[in-house]
Fold this sequence. Notes:
The chain is an all-alpha fold. The protein has 8 helices and 2 strands; from the N terminus they run αααααββααα. It has helices at 7-23, 34-47, 59-71, 79-91, 126-161, 173-202, 205-234, 245-257, and strands at residues 163-164, 167-168. Strands 1-2 form a two-stranded antiparallel ribbon.
Amino acid sequence: MDVRLTTEQQQLRDAAAKLADDLGPGSVADLDDESRRARLEKSVDATGFRTLRSDGASGVEVAIVAEEFARGLVDVPFIGPVLLDDLAGRLGRQPTVPADDPESVDLTGSLAGVAESPAELDELADDDAGRWHALALTVTAADLVGAARGAHTLAVEYAKVREQYGATIGSYQAVAHLLAESLALIEGSISVARHAAWAVDELPVGEAIEAARVAKIYCARSALTVCETSIQVHGGIGNTWECLAHVYLRRVLAATEMWPAKLEELTIGLS
């Protein structure tokens, strides 16, 4: 397995990142900006990101977009529509669109339209149903990685400007070590999630599902730690509504609850 992105995959990543940076919420207040969200919805729809699978995209390419959208807190549905697109391709028709969960802790609505176990899966062969589940777990793992990256960047930027005792807090070892540990967790998560995304299409279905479960568990644990660290680095402001750190944390908590993989099902050596 070559973990390097191809030129086309890098271009896809750049396009998703630019859309997220241009139209994603830059503050908690932006989450209530319906005009911005309408422009974002129109742009996401126009790019064809939601129909990547029917356009022949690999699991890696879907995960690339999911990661960048989570990093930029894109607050229109992506995971649900792209999974419905994959399911439609396997069914040969459009599946039923699930109702949104109005009580989700996630303020960005990233999981809107997601069904944990669509009824139509019973109509598929075991291989197709298994690969759909592997993709669902993998794309969710990628969302967790992206949220962790966004939360870490938020903390790093804050540490560069917040001063205590005449110096920026990032210059103190205690803070620097926290941020370095978060970065190490993110790098590990990227590796395990990238492998799972590749496995969706390339490995036997049983191995693909196992890789996806490992990625989901690893990335969920890592992302939670990274988000908590980001809040800690922000200090008092990190516990306020206005700080975006809690929005990343909410996204991570919501994604963690999707397709829960029981730890006892796997022996993966996580501590």
